[in-house]
Design brief:
- 41% of the residues lie in helices and 29% in strands.
- By secondary structure, it is an alpha+beta fold.
Length: 279
């Protein structure tokens, strides 16, 4: 009888140990799934948080500035997402927000900029060129008899140390955003035109919900695929011209045959073309 009791205790202990082991394995799997999910979501969370901080900063502007946030537009199977648009008597400000910190290197015509934090480097598409695409869409949407001035601005976090070479564009930290906007002091748009711009934006943008954002990302990937396919054939994805290998001051690059009308370039690294995403 004693042996039977001892065996039952051993069997119970084995079952208990087995259950604990299964729980540990499940916990470890869930932990790694959670880590992967957080790493996947962090860039989006940072971006949304940075956009919120920029919006709060712009709330300090006077009532003559009308602010739109997180605008999503669709046209002919393509979509465009704009972080902020500010409509005012002094022009239409088109603002691209970047939540990067650390040293930021780049130039107006560079395809990529570089973020450096200690010895870690990360490349991202030139936000000036990205914002130019937003301006082109808005210029098309808001075409009318009045020449509407668009002022593109790229805004980085205050923790970013901007070591960029800029002459003809505005790139600032968030703390300097309202100053950059207030530098435009000459009224160029009357009330009727401002009201029309506001109404047109309100009527044409779509809600940036989960489904629409998913479609926007899909459209962006399709456009990127088409662009890369054209590049592989030596065709400029912007204007349809031929890509010609040229020798720059520091490296080789492919430029459009329609330069200077089209300023599209592809830099070459180790005999490979550096593909870009212009969306």
């Amino acid at each position: 009888m004693f042996n039977g009791v001892l065996n039952r205790i051993k069997d119970g202990f084995r079952e208990y140990t087995k259950s604990i082991l299964i729980m540990i394995i499940i916990g470890v799997i869930l932990f790694f799934v959670l880590v992967i999910f957080i790493k996947w979501k962090i860039p989006m969370w940072k971006g949304k948080y940075s956009e919120k901080l920029v919006y709060n900063k712009m709330l300090k502007l006077s009532d003559e500035y009308v602010i739109f946030n997180d605008l999503l537009f669709e046209s002919n199977g393509r979509s465009t997402q704009v972080d902020h648009v500010v409509v005012s008597p002094y022009g239409v400000f088109v603002i691209e927000t970047k939540g990067y910190k650390g040293w930021i290197f780049g130039g107006e015509n560079s395809e990529y900029w570089t973020q450096t934090i200690y010895k870690s480097k990360h490349q991202f598409y030139n936000p000036i060129k990205q914002n130019e695409g937003h301006v082109r869409f808005l210029r098309y949407l808001l075409r009318c008899s009045v020449n509407i001035p668009f002022i593109p601005i790229v805004v980085f976090n205050n923790a970013a140390d901007l070591k960029v070479h800029i002459e003809n564009h505005i790139v600032v930290n968030r703390c300097d955003l309202t100053w950059a906007i207030s530098e435009y002091k000459t009224p160029v748009l009357d009330k009727a035109t401002i009201d029309w711009i506001i109404k047109t934006i309100q009527q044409n943008h779509i809600v940036a919900n989960k489904e629409n954002l998913k479609r926007h990302k899909y459209n962006a990937k399709i456009q990127q695929y088409k662009s890369r396919n054209l590049i592989s054939q030596g065709i400029c994805p912007r204007c349809g011209g031929q890509l010609i290998l040229r020798q720059g001051k520091f490296s080789s690059f492919y430029g459009c045959s329609n330069f200077p009308k089209c300023k599209f370039i592809l830099k070459c690294y180790y005999n490979d073309i550096q593909m870009i995403n212009y969306l």
